[in-house]
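User: Sequence recovery, please. Input:
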């Protein structure tokens, strides 16, 4: 496919990629600052590149066939990397995101029904209320610039709080979320031991200290789960109720309090921040392209009128959904997938040895010159013809058996909130305040997303 260089229109902001090979020290410093900047520019042109940082061999894979092999055909041979586990295990234990093998499989079987289309629709009124509350707050910002990253974080926190602990009783929901965010901020930056490929059992001091600080949050969550287990479901079923009732259909096994807590912690982190980031980036892109924003506004106003979006409206908002899909292409919250090879293999042109770090640079894959037309441009209409897009060149939620269990929930929440806001407000760029794409654990707009807010 052409690379889009013939289009003179400016593109939305992009991360600066590496122009030359980096040694151990430069790789470490760069990864701590912004993981995206360790992606070589040539990774946007080749199906795979390989290298070595100190003693650690690594590969970046951008070939859809090779990615399919990693994520589907040989998934057991490519478990999550030790660096990923080292960062996340102190906060979310052996939850779905971290666990491997049989322990992962039974949890997935048990939890999957909680995220069925029926249950997501049943939880959507929570999203509708959060969208309405967000619109009310933005009404107070009309006529001036607002940081939409802060607002979207508030909106998705409203959702995840009520989805996980609907009754709000016996747990400091704000405290749990703040504790998790503090852990991520302190622990998620790359350690030099990660760059060296050191085993996960070697302590990383920053993470150990952050984990100790999380202990009170963990204790509070455990107590709340035990109280709910004793009291039974509340008037409004929530995710905790669904998980308390969840069992492995093959064995009848149910989650312990620790397993419930670790998975709830995972859903709070993943379901809160990642959707907030997607919405903030989507609003930035709508402000960047006023024609796209106007088309989405017309659609939303025609479907919604003066009310907030509901589950029944989602199917009638295809333009809004395409904006979300294109946002996830340009700014995927999980911009990197990292695995540790267990066996000798071949992935496209890359020769894999056991112990090698094998990465899918999702941010780079989504902008690959051989896979996408005008890869750096914001073009929601490219999603009108999904059959032209290989599923393994687009991985905002991963793929294969370990695809994000909450993908349907996240898309529904994003469409409900974005359509509600676009129907009521117009968002315009603030000169000189473009966000910078920076990835530590997730891909964030450094400096926030500052937009002028006016009534539609």
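Assistant: Recovered sequence (456 residues):
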């Amino acid at each position: 496919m052409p690379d889009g260089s013939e289009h003179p229109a400016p593109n939305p902001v992009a991360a600066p990629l590496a122009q030359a090979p980096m040694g151990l020290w430069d790789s470490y410093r760069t990864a701590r600052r912004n993981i995206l900047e360790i992606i070589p520019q040539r990774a946007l042109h080749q199906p795979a590149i390989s290298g070595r940082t100190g003693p650690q061999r690594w590969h970046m894979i951008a070939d859809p066939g090779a990615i399919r092999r990693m994520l589907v055909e040989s998934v057991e041979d490519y478990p999550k990397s030790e660096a990923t586990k080292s960062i996340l295990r102190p906060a979310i234990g052996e939850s779905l995101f971290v666990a491997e093998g049989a322990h992962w499989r039974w949890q997935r079987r048990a939890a999957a029904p909680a995220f069925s289309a029926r249950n997501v629709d049943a939880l959507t009124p929570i999203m509708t209320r959060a969208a309405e509350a967000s619109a009310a707050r933005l009404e107070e910002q009309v006529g001036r610039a607002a940081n939409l990253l802060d607002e979207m974080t508030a909106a998705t926190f409203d959702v995840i709080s009520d989805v996980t602990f609907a009754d709000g009783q016996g747990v400091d929901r704000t405290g749990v979320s703040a504790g998790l965010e503090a852990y991520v901020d302190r622990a998620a930056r790359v350690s030099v031991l990660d760059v060296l490929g050191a085993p996960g059992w070697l302590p990383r001091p920053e993470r150990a200290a952050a984990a100790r600080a999380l202990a009170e949050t963990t204790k509070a969550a455990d107590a709340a789960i035990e109280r709910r287990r004793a009291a039974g479901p509340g008037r409004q079923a929530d995710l905790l109720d669904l998980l308390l009732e969840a069992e492995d259909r093959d064995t009848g096994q149910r989650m312990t309090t620790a397993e419930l807590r670790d998975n709830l912690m995972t859903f709070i982190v993943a379901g809160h921040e990642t959707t907030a980031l997607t919405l903030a980036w989507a609003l930035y892109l709508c402000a960047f392209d006023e024609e796209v924003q106007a088309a989405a506004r017309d659609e939303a106003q025609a479907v919604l009128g003066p009310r907030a979006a509901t589950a029944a409206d989602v199917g009638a908002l295809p333009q809004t959904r395409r904006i979300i899909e294109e946002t996830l292409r340009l700014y995927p919250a999980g911009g990197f997938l990292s695995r540790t090879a267990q066996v000798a293999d071949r992935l496209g042109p890359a020769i894999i040895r056991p112990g090698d770090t094998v990465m899918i640079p999702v941010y780079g894959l989504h902008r690959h010159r051989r896979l996408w037309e005008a890869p750096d441009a914001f073009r929601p209409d490219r999603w009108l013809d999904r059959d032209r897009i290989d599923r393994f060149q687009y991985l905002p939620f991963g793929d294969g058996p370990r695809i994000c269990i909450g993908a349907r929930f996240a898309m529904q929440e994003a469409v409900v909130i974005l359509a509600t806001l676009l129907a009521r407000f117009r968002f315009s760029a603030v000169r000189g305040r473009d966000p910078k794409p920076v990835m530590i654990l997730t891909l964030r707009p450094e400096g926030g997303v500052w937009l002028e807010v006016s009534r539609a």
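Residues 24-455 form a domain with the Cytochrome p450 fold (CATH 1.10.630.10).
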